[in-house]
TrEMBL record:
InterPro entries: BCAA_transport, Leu-bd, Leu_Ile_Val-bd, Peripla_BP_I. Residues 1-24 form the signal peptide. This is ABC-type branched-chain amino acid transport system, substrate-binding protein. Pfam families: Peripla_BP_6. Gene3D superfamilies: 3.40.50.2300. GO terms for biological process: amino acid transport. Belongs to the leucine-binding protein family. Keywords: Amino-acid transport, Signal, Transport. The keyword Ligase does not apply. Residues 72-369 form the Leucine-binding protein domain. The keyword Cell membrane does not apply.
Amino acid sequence: MMTMRNRTRGLAAASAVTLLLGLAACGGSDDSEDSSDGPTQNADVEFTGDPLTVMTWTAYDTDTLNVKAILDIAQGAVVDINNGGGINGHELKLITCNEGADPNKAADCARQAVDEGVAAVVGGFTANGDVMMPILEEAGIPWFGPPGISSAELSSPNSFMLTSGVLGLAGLGAKAAADGCETVASVNYDLPSAGEISQLVDVGLSSGGAPASDLIKVPPTTTDFSSIAQETVDYDCAIFGTPPQPFLGIVTAAKSLGSDTRYYLVPGGLTTFVTDTGGDAVEGTVTLSSFPTGDDPVWDDAKAVVGELEDDPNGGWSGMYMQNTWVAYQGFATVLKKNEDFSAAGIQAALDATAAVDTAGFTPPFTFATEFPFDGLNRIVNSLAIYIKVEGGELVQEGDDYVDLKSALVPAS
């Protein structure tokens, strides 16, 4: 175990880029207007405690990340919780912030959270957690349900993650090994972190007794994917740590070459946008998620409150990081339903002591009281995930049970 611990320690630094690449599913443009027919809070509900102010942030109106629907989800969740009487009689008050996919604006959002005395940050999306989390930590503000992208989110004691984070890449490696992949390409953007990303895949491959992958680098500015596709076609399997756009470009070009390579896409990257755009080229592609697929009945209440999000350019309810904000609010309300101290310090203490995290049925129970035993990844407390596959053009769960991704870190004997 010590060998694997040392091997994993250096990988945490690459975590921000690792999941950011997959999370570019949250990219593209979003020109939709603010909805005026969102959920309405019942004015007749009476609250017995002081208001509880929280913040949710995301990026929108940028050239790279536009995930404004996350705020619709947060606002809907707040109304839903308040219409049920709030959290132990306390009305939730929501402050939102556009972090603009910009480290400076992200820092401003975090400082606003401190200045306005929010008791917690809940859900949301950012690729700038390494800037934001230290500000929250210094102020003693917990972040419940961060996206788990940055190294700070994976390690800060103020981070309370609901997802399995970078363990997903090792999990995909383990799945590829279990699927019988003997030759594997690890396809990543040509960035300094590309080698570390492929190492995470190799950890999972090793757990299944498969050889290490070959790294194929994609120039970040390329729009012609034919040469990259040509490099992948001779492999049994290819595990992608890229955004959906280059993934789609590469697999579509490979399809025209008659490729029968099996594909695996980083968690957060495989959405209905990918299936609708990729068609037959993405059939059979595998990913994993901490939550059920977007058409599972477990999301029916969320859809009734927020809407179907069918026009969302990021895949709506099929996007794991869209789902995460709804689950964060439901879990936040459930975990704190009997809490008495709703200061930031009181919430932090309550979360630290929570031995059985109840996310209102969206995940199996897990604990915040015991950290993950790997330096830099210690806030990954939910290591359970499900595999999801494109089948008949739809995203379907593969198998009936959650898989514990910790097993992807144990080398084959």
